[in-house]
């Protein structure tokens, strides 16, 4: 198992969402941190929160994971600040709304540079450092959309399926080589982060109502908190779990895909529509009552 107390972890996308929640929970458990994000103000805020929780060593690094040179520099700086760094969480990610015909090639490449190549470059940059530790762990964040692929998410699904394939193959390579490095790939379902609100829209979409509807649907479905997701990931690290599903929705969709690998979408669509309508009605009633 990978022990958390006394460890040091590098986390990308650490200024908000799951990355922030992981930073806070790992600090509570005695882990030092190297936090990376493009949002410098957000990083400083998280570092300040950590300081209130536990006296851990924290370094902050402005990093755009779409730039390989910045990831390399991050790994070097994090390794210098935390010589015993033994956990890496490739968490940074973005979303892009639109069907394939509505997305320009440059937009798809933008998403891939972050969601897939950011994971690959992060893994490559940190692996030599991790391999020198007695025990070490890589956590690559995929998505439930790395297991199922709904319409309107062609770019996002392609990248998250790629993260899954890359991670599974590398995990097997590490095991064959008797490496001290373990690897977990994470498939969150709906987690209440700002990824939908911060998403970009395909160049071919001119109807702003679609974006608003997409965000509203995401908010209705994303009921797992980042803190809950962080606890699940940390439990997976401690148990060296090869695959980590987060949320009841992720577990159900994973089972559905297994039973109906080529025809799951019709079932998913009906369930999503029912769940969205029910939760939106419940939220509206709650707002009226307030």
List keywords for this structure.
290 residues; alpha/beta
Mean pLDDT: 94
User: What is the SS-derived class?
Assistant: alpha/beta
Biggest sheet, strands in spatial order?
Answer: 3-2-1-4-6-7-9
Q: What would you call the shape?
A: globular
Helix-strand string: EHEHEHEEHHEHEEHHEHH
The Cα radius of gyration reads 19 Å
Low-confidence stretches: none
Strand content: 5-15%
The biggest beta sheet, please?
7 strands, parallel
Measure the end-to-end span: 47 Å
Helix fraction bin: 40-55%
Query: Helix segment count?
Result: 10
The total strand number stands at 9
Please give a structural write-up.
The protein is an alpha/beta fold and 290 residues long. It is 53% helix and 14% strand. It contains ten helices and nine strands. A seven-stranded parallel β-sheet has the order 3-2-1-4-6-7-9, with helices on both faces. The chain has a two-stranded parallel sheet with strand order 5-8. α2 links the parallel β2 and β3. The longest helix is centred in the C-terminal third of the chain and has 26 residues. The radius of gyration is 19 Å and the shape is globular. The mean pLDDT is 94.
């Amino acid at each position: 198992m990978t022990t958390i107390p006394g460890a040091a972890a590098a986390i990308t996308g650490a200024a908000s969402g799951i990355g922030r929640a992981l930073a806070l929970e790992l600090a509570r458990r005695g882990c030092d941190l190297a936090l990376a994000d493009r949002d410098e103000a957000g990083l400083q805020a998280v570092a300040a929160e950590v300081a209130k929780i536990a006296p851990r060593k924290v370094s902050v690094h402005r990093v755009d994971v779409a730039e390989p040179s910045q990831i390399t520099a991050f790994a070097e700086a994090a390794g210098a600040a935390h010589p015993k760094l033994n956990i890496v969480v490739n968490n940074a990610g973005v979303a892009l709304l639109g069907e394939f015909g509505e997305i320009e090639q440059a937009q798809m490449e933008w998403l891939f540079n972050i969601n897939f190549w950011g994971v690959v470059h992060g893994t490559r940059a940190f692996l030599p450092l991790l391999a020198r530790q007695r025990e070490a762990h890589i956590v690559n964040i995929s998505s439930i959309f790395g297991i199922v692929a709904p319409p309107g998410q062609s770019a996002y699904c392609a990248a998250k399926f790629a993260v899954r394939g890359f991670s599974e193959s590398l995990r097997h390579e590490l095991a064959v080589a008797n490496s001290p490095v373990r690897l977990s790939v994470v498939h969150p379902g709906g987690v209440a982060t700002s990824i939908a609100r911060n998403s970009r829209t395909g160049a071919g979409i001119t109807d702003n109502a679609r974006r608003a509807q997409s965000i509203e649907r995401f908010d209705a479905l994303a009921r797992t908190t980042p803190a809950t997701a962080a606890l699940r990931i940390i439990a997976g690290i401690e148990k060296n779990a090869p695959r980590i599903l987060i949320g009841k929705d992720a577990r159900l969709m994973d089972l559905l895909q297994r039973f109906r690998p080529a025809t799951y979408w019709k079932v998913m669509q009906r369930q999503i529509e029912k769940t969205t309508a029910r939760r939106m009605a419940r939220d509206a009633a709650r707002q009226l009552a307030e």
